[in-house]
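Appendix B, example 12.
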Amino acid sequence: MKKYIGLVIITLLIGILIWENSMTTNERPLNKAKNEESSRVVKASDFTLQALDQQQYSLSDSQGKWTIVNFWASWCEPCKMEAPHLQRLYEEYNDQLEILAVNMTTKDRQDDVQKFVNEYGLTFPVLLDEQGDVSMTYGAFTIPTTIFIDEKGNIIHEFAGPMEESFIIDLLSL
């Protein structure tokens, strides 16, 4: 029991540190295509994963919409703080915005993923990265990690740590 309590405390402390650091140092724009200094555009790597609903989803299917690819796990405390924000955005802007929640299933259990989805009432696609390939491709070593992709399939922003709804709205100019 003491080990469990210690693990919970350590997880909470790590989550708080990630959250505090994300407010200042983890905001990293990846696409400076409109900046005169650089004309480099970073294309998002396509992927296809199975979702909890047993359907296959590909990133390329969401081209034409802004897309948020959110890497998360059911045991992640900052992910629990962020989930309601993502759900509200999806409900309000799903005609302009796609959210693909990529569960880092190599570090999670599928029944825990389903419980998380039910608890937070998530209606956007929840994808299972069972081999960890997509997480590795996008460098999602900290969770949550969120990749913002424009309607043309270009990565415009990467953010490590939990995000508030207003931050996402401002970033995407919704």
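The chain has five helices and nine strands. Residues 2-22 form the longest helix (21 residues).
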